[in-house]
Amino acid sequence: MHTTRPRQLSRRHLLIAGGGLAALSLAACDKVLPVSFNGIDITGANYAQDFRLTDPDGRERTVADFKGKAVMLFFGFTQCPDVCPTALLRAAEIRHMLGADGERLQVIFVTVDPERDTPVVLKAYTNAFDPSFIGLYGDLQRTSETAKAFKAYYKKVPTGASYTMDHSAFSYVYDPQGKIRLVLRHEQGAPECAEDLRKILKTTA
């Protein structure tokens, strides 16, 4: 009598524990598995959640429009002398390095200078780097609100009779489910960034 009861209790405990582990496993299926990135992992961040801006054809765009693709978003302006061209050249190189998966990467350029970056100017600028790249803009208020939502910095700097724009140089990456995942630093090379994008595309395929 004294030897069978502990065994029965043990079996019950194992069944309970097994059920708990199964439930945890099912719950884990709904979560993004941890991955090591070269960029800054901001998975689950409460900023850079979305945007609502206009493309050169007059269509309002949000991150939901690009579901099924990874999205790499960069803030800049078309008259930028070096940082923006470098970032977009790198983005084109990343897309090329991804091979067939490059079709699953959408690069977005958000202007912080909507006064000069008209739809025609934006479209010509992004097309010069890759025809698939999309330029987005808003009015001054929408631009400011979007930058704040991404914790991105920009400022108009007078230069004689004209002005330039000082701005942060990060690229933000969303996974194909539309979740913010990464911040790529400007100094990161294309191979490191492409490696991160492969992981993003693979883990959310």
TrEMBL record:
Keywords: Copper, Disulfide bond, Metal-binding, Signal. Disulfide bonds join C80-C84. Residues 42-205 form the Thioredoxin domain. Residues 1-27 form the signal peptide. PROSITE patterns: PROKAR_LIPOPROTEIN, TAT, THIOREDOXIN_2. InterPro entries: SCO1/SenC, TAT_signal, Thioredoxin-like_sf, Thioredoxin_domain. Pfam families: SCO1-SenC. SUPFAM superfamilies: Thioredoxin-like. GO terms for molecular function: metal ion binding. Cu cation binds at C80, C84, H167. Belongs to the SCO1/2 family. This is Electron transport protein SCO1/SenC.
